[in-house]
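Predict structure. Chain length: 343.
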Amino acid sequence: MTVFPAPEAGEDGVYRPILRPRRGELAALHHLDAAAARRVTPIVEVSPTDRLPQLVRRTPPRTGVMAVDLGAVPDPAGPLTSPPLDLAEELADLGVAMLPVLRAYDSRRRLVEHGLAARMHLMRAVLRLQPHTDARNPAEATSTTTRLLTGAGLEPERVDLVIDLAETACAAHADRFEERARHVLRWARTTPWRSVTVAAGAMPPNLDGLPTDEPVTVGRHDARVWARLREPGVGYADYGVTSPVRRSGINHRQLPTLRYTAERDWWIYRWARRGGRSDDRCHDLCRTLVTSPHWPSTGARFSWGDAQIAQNARSARGGGSPSGWMAWSTSHHIAYVLHTLLA
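Prediction complete.
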């Protein structure tokens, strides 16, 4: 059995992005530099059809630790199969430490399995609480979290609490969620959690309606909420450059697309110009981005994703793919968030 050392104090979980188990997101985690990797603990949402171990084997995350949310995976009918334990064994074989994610709707069986998975790895877990659905007042929040901790056999000192506000789609939502978050944070201080993090997301679930061939802004309302809530001891999480609204079975136009993070907005680049070749379109998109005012002063050195964008701005050969564009966007986003948090 792999033995996982405890992360260094003060460098664990500065940023907890909630990601999907796809090639793009895993590639971004794979290409983190060592300093960034120590400060990122990804929370990966797994569906019944995902094969996370295969992705991890191809592009292992440099974080070394990964929280895994199996909330969308039902309990199997038979008693001999356990999604948390099976995944914990596979990730242990790959040298990646797993933190099981406890959810309010987990069954007794799933909570026991989460507890066993935690003991196979770092003796830790993440408790992801969505106050708008899981607990509408402090008494209900206390009852819910007590049931989850008892079911998993874990003490709060071993558990990272993530207060997930989910979608903050507009300024009005952001204001309402900010007030809700303040109430939940007051409640959270009554329990000795290992850490407390606020999560939210503001990226629209579908970008197909946005204009093409010109950069368009989408407000980072989630980041604005956290900036107003920011205080010592409260960590940051978001949904990367994707939406909290998870949709499946929907085909989108595969135009070259970058979701480029700035202080208050994402700059969305969807490129259709220069004919039908994807390489030419991506080349033109990247050339436009690297000459924009929001291109970082450090340029290609800002992140691995920015280096890929700069390379494609120089050459139209190998213009990437949807997973590649997502990888570049996610890589830049993680670097930008860490730069902001550590400033």
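Summary: The chain is about 40% helix and 15% strand.
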